[in-house]
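FAQ
Q: What does a multi-component entry look like?
A: The components come first, one per line:
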Amino acid sequence: MDFIVDIIAKYSLVRILISFSLLIAIIMLNAIVMGYLERKICARIQRRWGPMEVGVQGWMQMFLDGVKLLAKQLIVPREANPFLFRMAPLLCFTPVAMAFAVIPFSESFYAMDLNIGLIYLLAMGSLNVFAILIAGWSSNNKYSLFGALRSVAQNVAYEIPILLSLLAVVLVTTSFNFKEIVAYQSGLLSFWMCQPVAFIIFLVAGCAETNRVPFDLPEAESELTAGYFTEYGGFSFGLFAIAEYGNLFIMSSVATTVFLGGWNGPFGLDFYSGPILGVFWFLLKVFILMLIMIWVRWTYPRVRFDQLMNLSWKYLIPFSLVNLLITAFIVKII
Amino acid sequence: MIDYYQIVAQIMFVAFILLTIIGALLSVNAKILMHSVLGLAVCLLGVAGLYFYLGSMFLSLMQIMIYVGAVCIVLVFGIMVGFTPNESAQKNDIGRNTLLGIVASGIAGLGLVITIFGKTSWETSAATVGDFSIEWIGENLLLKYCLAFELISVILLIAIVGAIILAKGGREEGL
Amino acid sequence: MIIISNNLNIYLILAAFLFAIGLYGMIRHKTLIGMLVSTELILNGAGLNFMAFNKFTAPDPAVGQIITLFIMGIAAAEAAIVVSFILAVYRKYKTSDPESLKELIG
Amino acid sequence: MSHYFSEIFTGGKSLLVGLGVTFKALTSPVVTVQYPREKIDISPNMRGHIDLIKDSESKNGLHRCISCGLCARNCPCSCIVVKGEKQEGVKGKVLKIFTLEFSKCSLCGLCVESCPTSAIDFSDEYELAAFSREAFNFDLLKRVQQGDTK
Amino acid sequence: MGTLTTRFSTIQDPDEKHKFLLNMGPQHPCTHGVLRIVLEMDGEYAMGIDPILGYGHRMHEKMAECRQWSGFYPNTGRIDYGGAIPYNHGYCALIERMAGIEVPERAEYIRVITVELNRIASHFLGVGAYVIDLGAFTPILYMFDDREDILDALEDITGSRLTYCHHRVGGVSKDIDDLFIKRTRAIIKNIRSRFDMYDRLVTGNIIFQKRTKDVGIIPVEMARRYGATGPVLRGSGLGFDIRKNEPYSVYPEFDFDIPTGENGDAFDRYMVRMLELEQSLRIIEQALDKLPDGPVMAKVKRVKLQPGDCSFSVEAARGMLTYYLVGDGSNVPYKLKIRVPSYSNLSLLEELCKGSLIADLVSAMGSLDLIIPEIDR
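Then the predicted structure of the entire assembly, as C-alpha cells:
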C-alpha cells in the first residue's frame, strides 16, 4: 500500500495532471505531424504533390481535417450495439495514452519512471487489440468482424517475437527499466549493432503489431473495405487514426530506447547531455523509424493471412528463439 | 500532507473494488455473451488494480497482459469464430438455474465470509523478507519454486499441442 | 484517517464474492463460453486470496506471487484449450449449449 | 532447409530492391501539376463541344452554316437543333436557331465530319461545370454573334 | 437491393447454419465498379460465389437497334472504357465486311498503331488495378505516368482521352502527323526503359509473388470450357490470339509473339500482360517503320445493311471481342450482338474461387482484369 502512496508522493498530483495533459497533446500533435508526413511522403513517392492548398506546402491540411472530423456527426448504425460502438474509439485511445506515460523522451523528460517500463508498455500494447475487437464486433458488420478477427490472431502471434527479441536485450542489460537500458548504450555501442537479428525481428513484428502495410490485414482496403472501422465516421474515426499513429510512435520509441540508444547521441557523440538535445536525438531516431515504416507502407503489397502467420511462426519466432539462446549463452560465458 | 495522498489512494482503491464488483456482476448477468466477456475484462482490470495495492506492480501488469490481453481475447475470439455474427448476439437464457445458482453461491459465499470473520484470526507477519521486485520473483521462480516453473511450462506445452490438434481436426472435417 | 486498503479482510471478502459469483454464473450460464467466463472469475478470486495472504501473513513474499503467476498460466492454457474444444464441439454438433450435447452425457 | 534460407535471402533482397525503387522516385521530380493554378496545354485537336466557326468572308458575314440540318440528323444523341428560315432576298435558308444540348452530347464528332461547309468545329473549352442541366444548353448562334468562339 | 434474389438469398439447410452471406459490392473497392458478388462464407473461406450483374446496364445492344449504324460509333468506346479503340475498330471492320468496303492501307496501319497503343494503356490500367487489389498503391501511379503519355498522344489524333471515337467505316477520322510519330517513338523508348523498374518493384517482390503464384489456377481445359480468352486463356498456356489465329487488318505483316504462361495462375496472367506490352511496342515500331502514304479514308457511299448476318472478331485488350450483326436491308441494324471477353472471364470466377480465402478471391478476381460496364453493357 505504501507503494502507491510512494508513487503519488514521488510524482505529485500536479505533475501527474500536467504530464497527462502534455502527453495527450503530444499524441495529438504526433498524429497531426505523422498524418501530414505520411500524406506528403506517399505523394512524393508516387511523384505527386500531396496536400498543397492550405498553408505553405499544405501544412495546415491535417488541422483542418481534424476540424472537419470534429464537426461531423457520429452515426451509429441501427443494428450496432450503441454503447460498445461509442466506447470502442475511447478504449482504443486510452491504452495508447497510458503507454505514453513511460516513454523516456530524455533523461529527465518523462512522465513516469517505472522499473518495469518495458513490461508496462507491452501490457498496454496488448490492450489495444481489445478495442479493435470491440469496434469490429459492435459495428455488426461482417467486414468489421473479419477485420477484428484477423487483428486478434495477428496480435497474438506477433507479441511473441516482440517479447523474445526484447528479451535478448534485457538479458544483456538485466533490467526492464528504460533508463538503465539507455544508460547501457551510452558509449559507442548500441544494441542494433550487437543484436541486429533482434532489431530486424522487432521492426517487422512491430510493423505487424501496429497493423501497418504489409501487415494491414485488419483494415485491408481491397478486401474488407476498411476493416474494423468500416462503420465509423467523424471524430471516432479520427480517434482510431490517432491511436494508430500513437501506436506507431510507441513501437518506434521502444525500438529507439532498446536498440538505438534512446536519447544518447549517435555513435557516442555525447558532446552535450542536456535534456533538450536528448529529446532532439530521441525524436530524431523515432521519426526516422516512423518514416521508414511509411516508406515501407507505400512500397509493398499486402501479405495474405496464412502467410502472415507463417512469417511469424516459421521465421520470426525460431530466429528470435535462436537469437535469445545464443545471447543467453554468450552472456553466461562472459 | 501525506494524508492528502492517502485520500487519493483510498478513493482509487474503492474505485478498483467497485470496478471488480461491477465487472463480475456484468459478466454473470449480461444478456449478450459478448457483454459477459467484456464484464470479465472489466473485473480483471479491477483485480489488476488491487494487485497494485497488494504491492506487486509486476503481477498487476502480468494480469493485464495475460488475462485481459490474452485470455479475454481468446474468449472473444471463440465467440466470434464459433458463432455466426447473428448468433453471437444471441441472448443468454436466463432463469433455468437461477434459483439453484443463487442458493449454491449464497451458501458458499456465506460460508466463506463466516470463515473469514468468525473462525480464524489471521496473524499478520510483521516483517516480510525481501522486496517485491521482479529479480526476487525470478530468482525464486527458478531456484526455490522451480517445480512450479517446470509444471507451468509442461501445462502450456500440452495446452498448445492440444489446442492445435482440436482446432485442426475440426477444420479438416469442415472442408 | 482510515486506511481501508491495508485491511486483509476486504481482500478476502472480495475474493469470496468473486468465488461465489463465479459459482453462480457457472450454474446459471447456458453457453460453454459463459461457463468459462465464470471459471475465470473463480480463478481470479483464488489469485486475489493468494496475493492478499502473501502481502499480509506470509513470511516469504515470493510464494503468493509465484502461485498467482501459476494460476495465470493455468488460466491462459485453460482458455486456449477450452475455446478450441468449444469450437470442435460447435463444428460437430452445431451448438454450444451444454445441455443439448446428449451424446457426451454417456 | 537450404530452400528455407535461400528464400529468406532472395525475399529480403527483393524487398530491399523495391524500397530502392520507391526511394529513387521519392528523390525524383514531381510529374503532376497543381490543376487550377497550373494548366498544361491541351491538344489543339481536343474534342470539346461544337461551335460555329466565325467567318467574316462568308455570305452572311458571320458563319458558314447553310441550315441543311445534316449535323442534327447525323447526331446519334439528337442533341443538336438547327432551324433555318426562308428570307426575302436571300438565297437559301437563314439560320435562326442552332442549339446544342451538351449534357446529351457524346463527343463523337460525327456532326463536324458531316458538315458540308465545315461550318462547325470543336471548341477548346474544357472547364465546363455548372449546377443545372439548363446551363449546358448552348445557343451556338448567340455565341458566334457575341464573338465567344475561336 | 432487395428485389434481386440470389441463389443464396437465405441459407436454409440447418447443417449449414454456421455459414453466412457476405455481400461484396456493388460498392466495394475490389470489384472495380458495380459488380455485386454474394459470397457464402464459412469463416474466411468463400464456399459459394454468385456474381450478380446488371447494376451498370446501359442497353448498348438495344441502342444499336434503335438508330442508324453510324450512330453506334460513340457507344463502342463506352462499352469497355479501359481499351476503347479495339471496340471501335471491331465495329468499323464489321460494317466494312458487311458492305464490302476496302480500307486504304495507311488507315489500317493507323488503326493498328492506335489499337496497340490503347492495348498498352489498358494493360497498364489492368495491372495497376491488380496491384492495388493486392494492397500496393504506388505501382499504379507509375503505370499511370506512362499511360498518361499514351493518352496524350492518342488525344492528339483522336481528340479524346478515354472514350475514343476515331475509326470510321472506310478508314480513320484523322490522319497522324510527324509529331505523333516522333512522340510515339519517344513513348516506346520510355516505356521500354521502365520495364526494369516494374520488374524490381512488382514482379520480383516476394510478397507479390507469394500472393499471386499458385493462386486462382485455371487449367487450359477449364478456360476453354468457359470460353475464356485473352490474357486469361494465354496465361493458362494456350496461345490463342485473334491477331495470329484469325488475322485481320494488317497484322499478318508484323512480326510478334504470343506470350503464354505455364501454370495458369494469377502470376502467369500478370506476366502475360507485362510481356504483351513489349509485343505491342514491337508492333507499333514496325507499323511506324512501314507506314505507307496515301489517303486515310476510302470513298464510302451510303451503306445499307444487307439482309443477312455477319460477324467480326478482334483481339481487344481483355480477349476476343466479336460483333455479330443481323441486317434487314435498312440502315438500322436488326440486331447487334456483342460478345465481350470480360463476361466469359467472369464466369470462371465461381469455379475458380470456390473454397478459397477471401484474400485469394480478391487476387484471382483482380488477375482476370474485369471491366464491369463491359459485362453489363
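Q: Is there any commentary attached?
A: Sometimes. For this entry: Chains D and B do not touch (no CB pair under 8 Å).
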